[in-house]
């Protein structure tokens, strides 16, 4: 690929690798075939900050909204599949999607700087948050900026805000957003919001009007329908 960010990232060896620790793991997300930055690698944090600065030089944005960072993938594990071992197929698998630990994410024997994906999976979003904060400090030195993340972990509220993810344009989701935001305050993430008027489905004038009224009191208030 001639995509600049990919070329520079490959040169700096910043991707999550397959179980051999050498070969970049390839999954699939919105653009198609995708490699995944290893934000637990200090070199990756430096690369990410540089890429954010390069993009800001072209498109002068005001902050970062980071998404799909659970980490998410549209294929099971990787384009080449996952090895048959106790990390990808542990002795006990909870009742989750497809009854597979790597469904909609990457193989659990993938290698990151902090360890195997099996051990650090829940920290992917958190590590991206820390790297993104470093990027913001480089792009906006001495200024207050904006950072919000879909995936969070304990301590994330010190660095980022959060939104409740993909909801629907229903009265139930309007109601459920209120306890959801209160719970995240208990989790130490006070900058929290929900997609006002819903993310999926078509809203109605009455539902959206009522949602805008209650949404005016969300710490993070944004219409998304």
From TrEMBL:
Top-rank taxon: Eukaryota
Q: Which GO terms describe its molecular function?
A: alpha-1,4-glucosidase activity
Which GO BP terms sit in this record?
carbohydrate metabolic process
Please give the Pfam families that the UniProt record associates with this protein: Glyco_hydro_31_2nd (PF01055)
Sorted alphabetically, the keyword list is: Glycosidase, Hydrolase, Signal
Identify the residues that the record assigns to the Glycoside hydrolase family 31 TIM barrel domain, covering every copy. Answer: 3-225
Which SUPFAM superfamilies does the UniProt entry name for this protein? (Trans)glycosidases
InterPro entries xref list: GH, Glyco_hydro_31_AS, Glyco_hydro_31_CS, Glyco_hydro_31_TIM
- Return the similarity comment: Belongs to the glycosyl hydrolase 31 family.
Output the PANTHER family linked to this UniProt entry: ALPHA-GLUCOSIDASE (PTHR22762), P-TYPE DOMAIN-CONTAINING PROTEIN (PTHR22762:SF133)
Q: By what name is this protein known?
A: SUIS protein
Gene name?
A: Si
């Amino acid at each position: 690929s001639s995509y600049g960010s990919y070329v520079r990232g490959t040169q700096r060896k910043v991707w999550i690798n397959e179980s051999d620790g050498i070969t970049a793991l390839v999954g699939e997300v919105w653009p198609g075939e995708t490699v995944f930055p290893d934000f637990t690698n200090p070199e990756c944090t430096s690369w990410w900050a540089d890429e954010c600065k390069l993009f800001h030089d072209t498109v002068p944005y005001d902050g970062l909204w980071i998404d799909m960072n659970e980490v998410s993938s549209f294929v099971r594990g990787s384009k080449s599949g996952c090895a048959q071992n106790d990390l990808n197929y542990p002795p006990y698998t909870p009742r989750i999607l497809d009854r597979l630990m790597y469904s909609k994410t990457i193989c659990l024997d993938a290698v990151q700087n902090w360890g195997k994906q099996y051990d650090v999976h829940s920290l992917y979003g958190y590590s991206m948050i820390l790297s993104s904060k470093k990027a913001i400090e480089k792009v906006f030195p001495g200024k207050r900026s904006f950072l919000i993340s879909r995936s969070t972990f304990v301590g994330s509220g010190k660095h980022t805000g959060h939104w409740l993810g993909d909801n629907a344009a229903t009265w139930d989701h309007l109601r459920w957003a209120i306890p959801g935001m209160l719970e995240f305050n208990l989790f130490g993430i006070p900058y929290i919001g929900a997609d006002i008027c819903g993310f999926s489905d078509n809203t109605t004038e009455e539902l959206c009007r009522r949602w805008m009224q209650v949404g005016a009191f969300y710490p993070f208030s944004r219409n998304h329908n």
